[in-house]
Amino acid sequence: MIGLNHYLVLSGLLFAIGLVGVLRRKNLLMLFFATEIILNAANVAFAAISHYYNDLSGQMFAFFIIAVAASEVAIGLGLLILLYKKHGTLNLDDLASMKG
To answer: Taking a C-beta distance cutoff of 8 angstroms, is the pair 57, 30 a contact?
Structure first.
């Protein structure tokens, strides 16, 4: 039987994968994907703990995290399209140079 510990281990692994992605990636699009993995790890943990305690507050909090993540993706992808049109790349090292 799958218990709370299994879900929390899955959540921890997803969070670790997302954290490594945030720290190691140089492409802004991959950085957004890694951030989404971190948010989904939090959602899995909230939903599992909420189910374990028979309380809906964790599931409602996960729902709000999903809503915030969707708005972050919509705004972030719009900004990424503008950056790509202006600079021709999404590489952080190229975008960090101080060009006038």
So the answer is: no
The label of the residue with tokens 């720290």 reads: 23
Tokens standing for residue 53? 């305690």
Tokens standing for residue 95: 């975008």
Q: Which domains does the chain have, with CATH numbers?
A: 8-94 (1.10.287.3510)
Tens of pLDDT, residue by residue over 26-85, are: 888 899 899 999 999 999 999 999 999 999 999 999 999 999 999 988 998 998 899 899
| C-alpha gyration radius of the chain | 17
Q: Is the pTM of this model over 0.90?
A: no
pLDDT at 26: 85
CA separation, residue 15 to residues 31, 33, 93, 100 (Å) = 14, 12, 25, 38
